[in-house]
Design brief:
With about 1050 residues, the chain is an alpha+beta fold. The strands form 3 sheets. It has a 7-stranded mixed beta sheet, covered by helices on one side. The chain has a 7-stranded mixed beta sheet with strand order 13-14-16-15-17-19-18. The chain has a 5-stranded antiparallel beta sheet with strand order 3-6-12-8-9. A hairpin with a 5-residue loop joins strand 13 and strand 14. The radius of gyration is 34 Å and the shape is globular. Bound molecules: zinc ion (ZN).
């Protein structure tokens, strides 16, 4: 009968076995075993096939262990094994079945352990011998299963088994030279892995020098790929047993603090004292990289399923009287063109000659609305940095009107991309110039901030004369002037060179990095080596925001006291390796992700290794092809002012630094993560900057707006820059209004002007998401350009744009929060006018528009997404949310316009980086206080979106590189075809394409005049042709 059963179950799928299990097959077989084994003379010709069948069935039966225990089959099998210690074939069969019992249920393992199973197994596995390896393997695998039980592990530690296991592992490692017994060797490692899950196990393991032994033996296995199972398990054990430590900083709170108005103290997020970093948690989950299931589960639970909440539209939460103040920031609704609007706002040109008082102003005491900066009395004088052959900024508008300047708005439009990227616009340094970056740094950059002098420092003047940079919409002078007025908490006095000098995307594109095999475990071995072979460990603090650090004689120099900079501490680990610690967001103890710092005094052509050791997210795109960005001052001065992707051997993994509860949102025992990467610098004694993503500072925004203001065509473009409010840090938050000037002063044209629907766009509520700024830059430049599509768009809509909702966060190098330590995109339900002024007043503006029946047609908040590729939208849909949550939807009660899907569908067609399939229209409970959900629910904006842009790259469409398009060199560098990493050009293009999408949306789904329709139709045909052409050209460019 056993033979027939075995045959039946050996063919076909597992369905047969599952059927038998469902019919009580496991119990029946176990009962037979109990009966047969307990006879005085057991018949092994029956028992052996039975045991084999039990092992086979048991593997598929999740309750097999419990069933065996209930029927007392576990004890019977153990007894049988004990009787057969000398009979290897019988013993092996018993061990197989025992292993199935134990691996199904830890409690079964525990009771087997109490009945002496481990002692029995030690008799089998000791001493080392190559005889009976099948039995040996069965025994060691059973032992590993038993040791999943903590009480067994504790017993193993108490009885000294750990030491014996380690010794046996070493014997097998040394004697198995032909690698024939990898399973047995791995079995020993699994035993060690389970025992070291408990703290006494780890302590004992350290005591018997387990780390050293595994490190050495593990290294001997690295070369052979067939030994991967061994190396991986060794790595897991090493990571786990590496002694946990505290981050080497005095406190995890931010180095800077800000006293919040009205609170008397600093920091709303201070969560009590920082606890000690004990080893919490007995069992460490090895789930670093496979948290996705968990995430999905949490996402499902997070869906808003309350139909009332989804469908209700709350009343205006502000008194009507208070809304009146927002009239002032909607000048388009009341301006009287007869008086000559143009004449009343002379263009204001900040320049280096203009001595700016430092604004220690705390102007939040004033009413929210203040006159726009432009209205301040600023005298325009011929500047002292006027250069031969280059028009001063004063003369420029005339030249622009004649279409001569590169900053002509026409250069914004279609044909211009090519010129912008093709021509190196900085002249190379004369070769005889002996330019020393360090001198530059000391003499020039520091003095840029000298507030007494009215003249630009000589060094800067000379530098700019030699390198008249003309990066589109960037001017070092404007930048300098704006930076002087920027209020930072640390009172920055140094400019980072890339922000000052400007960035231009390189003419080539960079593919995502191919991850090198074994890079992470190599890195972990390196970390362990620091611990056990510390002879070459330097461990010297070379930079510290909190205290003066000594000058390292030979090493790199670090610096981060500039806008958006946030390196807190740098520790030289070995000669060419540095551990870096990022500063927390102000008034918090966390949010380490964004980084931006300067590094100098490097030697060329040597790989430097950087480890950012206090990252917090459990995974990162750095594990999937993303690289950080670098800007070299020497390269910039030689005509290549580019932030480029650099770094290799990149990996991101959990490290041994434990977060105190205060730094982990109250959760104890969480770890930090390390981002490790190597960089080879291009020049000797250069100054380089490394960042998480292409920086875009507040001063960059302000100077960018200054240039745009001058560059637009005032006869066609209605453009106003006003101050929405001042931030806690005393910085004005600019609000832009962009639309077309009325066609004429006839009343119907004026009416058309005022009746245009609103589009409200904003970005950079999260300061670390600089990609959002580049997208917004693209949007604004396109909207102000002379592109005929932009012209049409301006005639269709009134754009209200708040580019930087969190200027203070950006300035002070935060990743997520504002000065109050709050995530501003979680404050939309009830923003405080004191603590969250930008959100409070943006919401006020939206309320005001609603109160005058001018609810925006489209609302979009630009963000960056750190875990995904491509660009996509999040929107809000009642029905999709309910469906996703598995709720029944009563279509009679819930009606919904599906118009929210149109714009993303259009973008999927027109924007190369955009992917519809990544979009989501679910309303999550946890997002109830975000801009997208609140504007949708409270203001009834159907098309209320968050636009998420990748930091990494694209895996779809045009920017997914096909193998054919790649050069041989690229193919050699990364064998498989992958997408491009996103650059500022692609981000800006996304911003422009978003506008195009709005125009198509208007044509497709909204009422519009025939005239407009005809014009647009012609243009869009044209656009399609041009796009095709440009695609071809850019592909040629990238790969020729
Ligand atoms: Zn964000």
């Amino acid at each position: 009968i056993l033979g027939v059963l075995t045959d039946l179950l050996s063919v076909g799928t597992d369905r047969r076995i599952h059927y038998m299990i469902s019919k009580g097959g496991s119990e029946a077989l176990l009962q037979v075993l109990v009966n047969a084994a307990q006879t005085p003379e057991p018949d092994y010709s029956v028992l052996l096939p039975l045991l084999r069948l039990l092992a086979k069935v048991g593997q598929r039966d999740r309750r097999f262990g419990q069933k065996a225990q209930t029927l007392e089959a576990t004890d019977v099998t153990l007894t049988l094994a004990r009787k057969n210690l000398a009979h290897h074939q019988n013993l092996t069969h018993c061990l197989w079945v025992l292993r199935v019992y134990a691996s199904n249920a830890v409690s079964v393992g525990t009771s087997l352990g109490m009945n002496g199973a481990m002692e029995l197994l030690f008799k089998v596995i000791t001493p080392y011998t190559k005889k009976h390896t099948r039995t040996m393997r069965a025994a060691i695998e059973l032992l590993a299963a038993l040791l999943k039980s903590k009480s067994n592990s504790r017993r193993a530690v108490n009885r000294g088994y750990l030491c014996e296991l380690l010794k046996l592992y070493q014997d097998w490692h040394h004697c198995d030279t032909s690698n024939s017994y990898v399973h047995i060797r791995r079995g020993f490692l699994l035993c060690l892995k389970h025992i070291t899950n408990i703290q006494t196990g780890r302590e004992a393991f350290l005591f018997i020098r387990g780390i050293e032994i595994l490190f050495t033996t593990g290294q001997e296995c690295l070369a052979s790929k067939s030994l991967d199972p061994i190396v991986n398990t060794v790595t897991q054990i090493l990571r786990k047993c590496y002694p946990k430590g505290r981050l080497p900083v005095a406190t995890v709170s931010s180095s800077y603090s800000f006293s919040i108005p009205g609170s008397g103290g600093t920091g709303s997020s201070y969560a009590g004292p920082e606890d000690n970093c004990e080893d919490y948690g007995e069992e460490e989950m090895e789930k670093d990289l496979d948290n996705e299931d968990l995430e999905n589960k949490e996402e499902e639970d997070d869906l808003e399923t309350d139909v009332d909440k989804l469908t209700s539209k709350p009343e205006l939460a502000r008194p009507e009287a208070e809304l009146g103040q927002y009239k002032a920031i909607c000048p388009e609704l009341s301006c009287n063109f007869q008086v000559g609007l143009l004449g009343s706002y002379p263009p204001i040109i900040p320049n280096a000659a203009f001595s700016m008082q430092q604004q220690h102003c705390r102007e939040r005491d004033q009413p929210a609305m203040v006159p726009e900066l432009g209205e301040r009395a600023v005298k325009v004088t011929p500047s002292n940095w006027k250069k031969k052959g280059k028009p001063t900024e004063n003369e420029a508008p005339d030249r622009r009107a004649r279409g001569e300047s590169t900053r002509d708005p026409a250069c914004l439009s279609k044909g211009e991309d090519a010129t912008k990227s093709d021509t190196p616009t900085l002249h190379p340094l004369p070769t005889e110039t002996c330019w020393d970056a360090r001198t530059f740094h000391a003499q020039c950059v520091n003095s840029l901030y000298s507030r007494e002098g009215v003249e630009a420092p000589d060094v800067v003047t000379k530098l700019l004369e030699r390198h008249p940079g003309n990066i589109c919409f960037h001017s070092p002078h404007f930048y300098m002037a704006r930076a002087r007025r920027t209020c930072s908490i640390p009172d920055y006095r140094v400019l980072a060179f890339p922000d000052f000098w400007g960035h231009q995307p390189p003419t080539y594109c960079q593919s995502m990095l191919q991850r090198k095999y074994g890079v992470q475990r190599a890195k972990i071995f390196e970390d362990v080596r620091c611990l056990i072979q510390p002879s070459d460990v330097i461990d010297l603090v070379v930079f510290d925001l909190d205290s003066r650090s000594p000058d390292a004689p030979d090493g790199l120099k670090f610096f981060s006291k500039f806008e958006s900079g946030n390196l807190r501490k740098a520790i030289q680990v070995r000669e060419f390796e540095y551990n870096l610690i990022l500063n927390s967001d102000l008034n918090t103890t966390q949010h380490h992700q964004w980084f931006y710092f300067e590094v100098s005094a490097m030697k060329p052509a040597l790989p430097y290794r950087f480890n950012i050791i206090n990252c917090e997210k459990f995974n990162s795109q750095f594990n999937y092809g993303m690289q950080p960005v670098m800007y070299s001052v020497k390269e910039a001065l030689q005509g290549r002012p580019h932030w480029i992707r650099v770094g290799y051997d990149i990996c991101y993994y959990k490290n041994h630094y434990r977060r105190c509860a205060a730094a982990a949102g109250g959760v104890r025992g969480k770890s930090y993560y390390t981002l490790a990467f190597s960089v080879t610098f291009p020049h000797k004694d250069d100054i380089c900057y490394l960042a998480y993503h292409y920086p875009y500072t507040y001063s960059a925004l302000m100077s960018h707006l200054d240039l745009l203001k001058q560059a637009r065509n005032p006869k066609k473009v209605f453009f106003r820059q006003q101050t929405l409010c001042y931030t806690l840090g005393g910085n004005p938050c600019p609000l832009l209004t962009i639309t077309a000037m009325p066609q004429s002063q006839r009343s119907d044209d004026l009416e058309q002007f005022r009746d245009r629907p609103y589009v409200v766009l904003m970005s950079r509520v999260h300061p670390g998401e600089s990609n959002a700024s580049w997208v917004m830059k693209g949007t604004i430049e396109f909207l102000l350009s002379s592109d005929p599509i932009a012209e049409l768009l301006r005639r269709c809509f009134i754009f209200k744009i708040i580019h930087m909702l969190n200027p203070d966060g950006v300035i002070n190098g935060n990743h997520r929060c504002s000065l109050s330590g709050d995530d501003l995109n979680r404050q939309w339900l009830a923003p405080s006018s004191q603590l969250h002024p930008t959100i409070y007043h943006t919401k006020g503006l939206l309320y005001y528009l609603r109160s005058i029946n001018r609810t925006p047609l489209v609302f979009c908040d630009y963000h960056g997404h750190s875990q995904r590729k491509n660009v996509f939208l999040y929107g809000c849909s009642i029905k999709e949310t309910l469906w996703q949550a598995g709720c029944t939807v009563d279509t009679a009660v819930v009606t919904e316009d599906v118009g929210y899907r149109t714009l993303p569908k259009i973008l999927d067609k027109v924007a190369p980086a955009f992917v519809m399939s990544s979009c989501s229209f679910l309303v999550e409970k946890s997002r109830g206080s975000t801009a997208r959900v609140v504007v949708w629910r409270e203001n009834g904006v159907l098309r209320s979106y968050t636009m998420e842009s990748t930091y990494c790259g694209c895996s779809h469409g045009l920017y997914k590189v096909t193998d054919k398009e790649r050069t041989n060199r690229e193919r050699a560098h990364s064998p498989d075809s992958r997408g491009l990493q996103i650059g500022t050009r692609e981000l800006e293009e996304m911003g422009a394409k978003f506008c195009l999408g709005l125009l198509i949306l208007q044509l497709k789904s909204l009422p519009c005049s025939k005239n407009l329709m005809d014009q647009a139709a012609t243009l869009l045909d044209l656009e399609e042709e041009i796009t095709d052409l440009r695609v071809q050209r850019s592909v040629q460019q990238h790969y020729s």
